[in-house]
Amino acid sequence: MILDAAAQIVVNEGVSAVNMDRLGRDAGISKALVYNYYPNRSELLRALLLREVRLYQAQQLSAAESAPDVESLIRITTRAYLDHIAKKGVLIERLMSEPSIAQGMGEMERQGRARTVEYFAIKLKEGLSMPIELARMLTELGMGLTGAGGAYLDRTGCNIDLLEDMIVSMLMANISAVEKDYANWRKVETAGLRLRT
Q1: Burial of 16 (0-12, 13-18, 19+ CB in 10 A)
Q2: Phi-psi region of 18 (alpha: psi -120 to 50; beta: other; left: phi over 0)
Q3: Of 54-63, 111-120, 168-177, which one has max mean pLDDT?
């Protein structure tokens, strides 16, 4: 209840609006009980951030595991991300922008991103028979495009179905172009310019 109340305040009013008195009122409990669970505001907000990151990662993994092919994987995970943004706004980003809250979370975020990139890269490698280094590059760039789509959705409230279709179309077109051009890149590589692994 306490974390849910904190999340609602952050989404509606920003991180600075969160205080222990208000959390007690909004959660329907005493301020003392809030302090019983969380010794201070920073600890409470770090717990909220950790909960939200883990929840989002679990939702993404669950969505990804149900995909029968690469295009479905891209569509399902893109939609899961956009749904998360539509429902929670930029809650995670707002919390991460506060140094006292994000302290120590940077490494967790970096490791989580690395796991995500590797997971998707392996799926691309298997589904499209492409080298893993190319699949990693495509994954990183695709995550950037999807993130930009989420920021656009949060800022404008645009049609989520249209945005999903646009992101998936752009990603699939990029994959197709990269697959086609890979043969040319291999020629460059054999001429002495190596792709990084």
Answers
A1: exposed
A2: beta
A3: 168-177
